Amino acid sequence: AATEKGLVVNYPKATYLNPTDEVTRAEVAATVYQALVSQGKLPALTSTSKATSYIVKYDAKGQSTTSSTTTSSTTNTTPSTTNTTSLQDVADTYWAKPFIERLVKDNIIDGYSDGTFKPEQSVTRGEFSVILEKAFSEDPVRKSRAFSDVPANHPAAAAIGKAYTTGFVSGYSDNTFRPDLKLTKAQTLVY
Q: For residues 78 and 49, what is the distance between their CA atoms, to the nearest angstrom?
């Protein structure tokens, strides 16, 4: 499950998820980062990073291992944050800075043209699809589907299509995708 893989990053309290709360850009960055760690595509954060204290980790027996460092098949080193765009609203002490900086550096998640990241801003289904498209290059698992509320000229149309065919996201039974609907914490883990 997600906690066994260390995918759940929960701030400010690792043991209290609030699954129905809207997920923030910082939380999405942390979750996507941890998913890439679980695939061996990014290095795990070292236990000296403040961010590791928010990674929820349980073993197969349901025993919490949250206080320990995450495990990965990759070398356990802190990601490089050199040559990254300086984001005005992500302070050096911000809990998710290591996750955000690495994903911005790797062009997986973008900051805004005004030099901000807006880490506490909620994420929509369309925005999440764009991040998924940039982060993961999975093979399609199902045929494409046209959604009545995602015209071809929608900024996230291609990303939504790819995220759907690769099985990361689903539409609704009324043939809509609802790209502007805010995601909850639980939905980011189910996708």
A: 8
Q: Distance (Å, rounded) from C-alpha 138 to C-alpha 167?
A: 9
Which residues, listed in sequence order, are joined to residue 9 by a DSSP beta bridge?
Answer: 55
Q: Quick one: tokens of 175? A: 């043939």
Q: Say how far apart CA 16 and CA 74 lie, in whole Å.
A: 28
- Neighbour tally for 99: CB within 10 Å: 30
Q: What is the pLDDT of residues 48-104, one digit of tens each?
A: 566 665 555 555 655 555 443 333 333 333 333 333 458 999 999 898 999 999 999
Report the alpha-carbon distance of residue 27 to residue 15 in Å, rounded. 15
Report pTM.
0.78
Please write the tens of the pLDDT for every residue from 134-150: 999 999 999 999 999 99
Cα distances (angstroms) measured from residue 86 to each of 5, 55, 90, 95, 101: 30, 24, 8, 16, 9
H helices of 18-73, where?
A: 25-38
